Structures are given as C-alpha cells and as structure tokens.
Amino acid sequence: MRYFIGIDIGGTNIAVGIVDEHGTLVQKLSVPTRSAQGLDAMLEDMVSACNAVRELAGMKKEEISSVGIGVPGPVTREGVVIRAVNLGTEWSNLNLSAVMSSALGMPVYLANDADCAALGEVISGAGANCNSALMITLGTGIGGGFIVDGHIFSGCTGQGTEPGHFTFLYGGEPCSCGKRGCFERYTSATALIQQTKRAMEQHLDSKMWALVDNDIDAVNGKVPFDAAKMGDETAKAVLEQYVDYMGMGIASMTDTFRPELVIIGGGISNQGDYLMIPLNAAIRKYAFASDVIAPPPAVRATLGNDAGIIGAAMLEVSAEKASKQ
Ligand code: BGC
To answer: What are the sequence ranges of the domains in the chain?
Structure first.
C-alpha cells in the first residue's frame, strides 16, 4: 500500500493528513494558520505538522510517497504559487514546492485548495462515481474546482480556475484580489459576515445582537443561521439575499459548464438542508430554461474539511492516472 501526505492551507487552519492510495484518510491533525506571523512561520508549521502526523501514524519518512499541498490561490504546473490573496503578499510568485520539498526531503505536488477539495470529493465523497462536477467551497474566500473525466480541470496554463473571482457585479464591493464585484465578495463566509453586520447595524432590534453579547466583532457565519432558526426577520432577510446571490452565480457557472453535480463545501455548508433546499431553488430560478432543462443538483460535500487533505494527498496518483489516459 502506498501512503501520501496531504496539506490543506485554509484561512483559519492548516490541516495535514496521511492518506492511503485508495483515498482513505488514516491520520490527521490541524494547526492554526499564522498568516499574520509571516511566511516563514507558516512554512515551519507545515513542516512540523507533516513530521508530527507521520509520527502519530507510526510511519517512517521512506513510507511516504509524496506530499500534496492545496493552496488558497492559483499555482503553476511547476509548483509555484502565483498569489494567495487571503494569506498575504509574501505568497506571490513563491516556489512552494521547491521550498517544501527541500525542507521535507520528499517530492511535493501543488494545486489550488478548492481543486484539491473537488478531487477529494470525487474520489471518496459526494461526487464518487461522477465524471464531471463543480465544487464550490464557502470559506474565507470562495474556492471553486471543476472536475472533468475524473480529473481537476486546470486549464491550459495548469493554474486551475477561479470561480470566486468572476465579476458578479460591475463596480461592486472591492475584493482582496484588487478587482471589484467578485463573486466571493457576495457569497463567501467573509461576505456573509459583512452582510450580517451591516444588517445588524440597521436593525438594533435583531436577535443577533443577543447571540453575540452585543459585540459585533463576534459575528461569525453561523450567527445569521442560528437567529433565522429562532425566527429573527433580519437574519432571515440576510440569508434570503445571500442564498439568492449564490444561486445566481452558480446557475451562471452550470449554464456555462453543465456538470453532472454541484458540490457545496466549506464551513457554511454545515447548515445542511437549511442552506441546500433554498439554494437548489435559487439555482433553478436563475438557470437557463430550467423549466425544460433540469439544472444539476447541488449537494452538500460529505468529507467536510477532509476533502482538501484527501485531494491534496492524491495529486500524485491523479497525475499518474492522467498521464496514462
Ligand atoms: C482564491 C482561490 C481559493 C479560494 C479559497 C480565493 O480567494 O483566489 O484560489 O481557492 O479563495 O481559498
């Protein structure tokens, strides 16, 4: 049996795991993402986390075939991070595979984090047996991955796709990428938090104030859902708008690409049917000719945060399979 290490660099945590050749996660751990402490601190954390997870699994370095890393930004085929806007400016034009490979003494494969999550979900999650899928992860940013013929569609330059940054609204909200109106500025967890705070400021009678002990900085992506379930009208209106934005953007993508399935991951997807039922209705509302052409179903990712680890770990296997096709 071959084993691989997968690293998923998230805005909040870096998750690291050991995965076998069938895509089963056998050991994992996570450490906080210290992006404010700079690049070197994060590189050190990643190296120690790889060693720690291997030791936890009782495995020697020689038993690991390679390390795969999912990065929250576009990467090149050569293993260079082009930029990762949500991690800081040091993450631009960074040869992460070379740095990590020399620190770990193992081959390192790199891909976009959402592409890794998409691969993980089609290998062992919600998209198992699916030939084509669109995965959207709702986190600090919006990640997106297209799977075609069971593989990541990474485009002619190999850098993957950026569905979080298609222009959703001309001249809209400023985005950390430097553009305006990006899809992630309306539908990421960060955007939901901002929309919630704005609504709270306009509705001082909202139950959401009590949920955060009157501390607006304590608002997270769960607060509007909790308050809406308690019947709070302000929270319900925030979510209605948020899900409508999401349905409109996803319908535009599925009209363009026509995948079999849409898989929704990231922290917000933990809301389950409370999110997925209205989201499917919103996709139908905006999809082209949906009265005669059924849009693909949107389902919740089943691997949670493990999808990114599994997909990253399987990058070597996926590259081997792709080269044989
Ligand atoms: C980045 C993507 C990434 C996503 C989730 C976006 O802002 O541009 O590359 O997949 O955030 O981390």
So the answer is: 3-123+305-323, 130-300
